[in-house]
Specification:
By secondary structure, the chain is an alpha/beta fold. The protein is built from 17 helices and 18 strands. The structure holds GDP-alpha-D-glucose.
């Protein structure tokens, strides 16, 4: 993550405060013992060094069953050693509020509203009130932590859409930035939300608002333009509301390429990958095609299973020549739609297997379990192909991880509705809704020559290596710093790889007249 330190220095002593619903680590009880568990996360990896170097704080909702007993009265605990030291401040929401905020408004309203996956969002007044209340609880914690300091507050994702506005009122000296990890839909899709204006005003509390793609930025500006009495400055990609200005820019998120590549290339990892490959390819007789995702309807799992069935109908020569392993870790199981979807997936797997299982060959293996991250990378190493079939996806980091960890002669099929598809042009594109064409694309990938696969993979690797998670964090810090300059419309030199993956930072800086200079 070269260059990150330089950007941290440019924060000139301001504390860096990350606010996210999910905490970077949890305290969990195992028998009589309490252990700090750190779920692997690219986001944590990228932001922890910044929080640590600025003696900052990470504010997040509690999730571990032993969280409460490890914090002080204000909910603070030091991040566990080795190597990292910063303050984690936990927010403890009452269970009912947590349920309505998280399971309700975040995952059953905003998630389907922002993903065009033909899953109807639900709009419950009670959930919306809980969402506001939860955002207020986060605002209280941030205000308590930073007071009048000129800190940088970096808010994560769709759980906290109204937090920036609350902070703008309470912490006028802070620079507030937010990254929205999921897509922003077109104005027609968004306008069905009864609280759309409140959500948009909440997000306009940001100095800087980041999305994965320029396309999401355009959708957001268009939505704001239709819904609010504001000035949308398209040339500099910013929204001017009263005396404040929100720059809107794209920062395509990525993965820690070198870390994943190195870890998956260790002898032990290679041996494990070889074992998985031998076990699932029938000793090399069949190709091993994998997919990895949260068990979520937006990932197009059902559509992929339909395409696999169609593959065997349209291209019967692939019977007994390929095995599909899908690793779908259970997710949001408190949401009914997710439980129903898991059942649909199970039934579809059983149906396809019942149709085609033959003399020891089972076409699909479904692993609905959480797999350790190193083990996920072993699967990437073992596979001949990966399929990412999302109906809509902000970015999709699985695709980039596969490029970092996969074999030289592996091939990737990638839904054209993922953000990742914008940059990863050497993947085989698929439309998960077009079942026949999807099946044909699988057949095409399976039949692709080793030379072509290697050539595509070499190019893909170059793209991900040159735009990794470090570049993402650096570009965001740079844009935050730009907000401090009294210069408008600075076009930053970009470190991206090609047009599709470059951060677009046209809207750089404009002083916020209402506030004092922060030095
Ligand atoms: C959201 C946006 C955007 C999956 N199963 C297991 C496991 N995973 C890991 C993968 C990967 C991560 O989870 C999934 O990241 P994605 O980016 O693919 O998708 P979302 O979870 O929907 O993430 C998305 C992202 O935010 C970042 O901005 O790209 O568009 O929807 O890292 O490896 N990890 C482990 N076991 C599993 O079973 N350890």
């Amino acid at each position: 993550m070269d260059g990150l330190l330089q950007e941290i220095t440019s924060l000139e002593g301001r504390r860096f405060v990350v606010v996210s619903n999910r905490q970077p680590y949890a305290h969990v009880r195992h028998g009589g013992q309490v252990r700090a568990e750190k779920p692997p996360s690219g986001l944590t990896l990228a932001l922890e060094p910044i929080v640590q170097a600025t003696r900052g704080t990470w504010i997040a909702a509690s999730s571990g069953d032993a969280d409460a007993e490890t914090v002080d009265r204000a909910g603070r605990v030091m991040a566990p050693p080795p190597g990292v030291e910063y303050t984690l401040r936990r927010i403890f929401l009452p269970p009912r509020l947590q349920q309505d905020f998280y399971t309700g408004f975040a995952n059953s309203t905003l998630w389907p509203l922002c993903h065009i996956a033909y899953h109807q969002p639900r709009f419950e007044e009670r959930w919306w009130k809980a969402y506001l209340q939860a955002n207020q609880a986060f605002a209280d914690a941030v205000a308590d932590e930073i007071g009048g300091d000129p800190a940088v507050v970096f808010v994560q994702d769709f759980h906290l859409a109204v937090l920036p506005q609350l902070l703008r009122e309470r912490c006028p000296q802070a620079i507030i930035a937010q990254f929205w990890h999921i897509p922003w839909p077109n104005p027609e899709a968004f306008r069905i939300c009864p609280w759309r204006k409140e959500i948009l005003r909440g997000m306009l509390g940001n100095d800087l608002l980041g999305f994965h793609l320029p396309y999401h930025c355009m959708n957001f500006l268009e939505t704001v333009d239709r819904e609010l009495q504001v000035r949308v400055d398209r040339e500099s990609s910013a929204v001017v509301l009263g005396r404040s200005r929100t720059s809107v820019a794209a920062f395509p998120m990525s993965v820690d390429y070198h870390h994943i590549q190195t870890a998956s290339g260790l002898p032990q990892a290679r041996a494990e990958a070889a074992r998985l490959r031998a076990e699932h390819s029938g000793g090399g007789q069949r190709q091993l095609v994998i997919s990895v995702e949260r068990l979520d309807y937006s990932k197009g799992i059902r559509e992929r299973l339909e395409a696999i069935q169609r593959l065997f109908e349209r291209h019967p020569q692939w019977k007994n020549k390929v095995v599909f392993v899908h690793i779908a870790t259970p997710s949001r199981t408190t949401v009914r739609a997710y439980r129903d979807y898991a059942q649909t997936v199970d039934r579809t797997v059983a149906r396809v297997n019942a149709l085609y299982t033959h003399s020891g060959w089972i076409p699909i293996r479904a692993l609905h379990i959480y797999v350790e991250p190193e083990k996920v990378w072993n699967w990437y190493q073992a596979a001949d192909a990966l399929i990412v079939s999302s109906l809509h996806d902000g970015m999709n980091l699985v695709a980039k991880e596969f490029v970092a960890a996969g074999r030289d002669d592996a091939v990737m099929l990638l839904s054209e509705f993922t953000g990742a598809a914008r940059a990863l042009k050497e993947a085989v594109p698929i439309n998960p809704y077009a079942t026949d064409a999807f099946a044909d694309a699988i057949a095409h990938a399976l039949a692709m020559s080793g030379d072509e696969r290697r050539d595509r993979m070499r190019r893909l690797r170059w793209r991900v290596e040159h735009y990794d998670i470090g570049v993402w964090a650096r570009e965001i810090l740079r844009a935050i710093r730009q907000r401090e300059f009294d210069v408008q419309d600075i076009a930053l030199p970009v470190a991206g790889v090609h047009a599709g993956s470059q951060p677009r930072l046209a809207a750089a800086a404009a002083p916020r007249p209402a506030r004092a200079r922060r030095h």
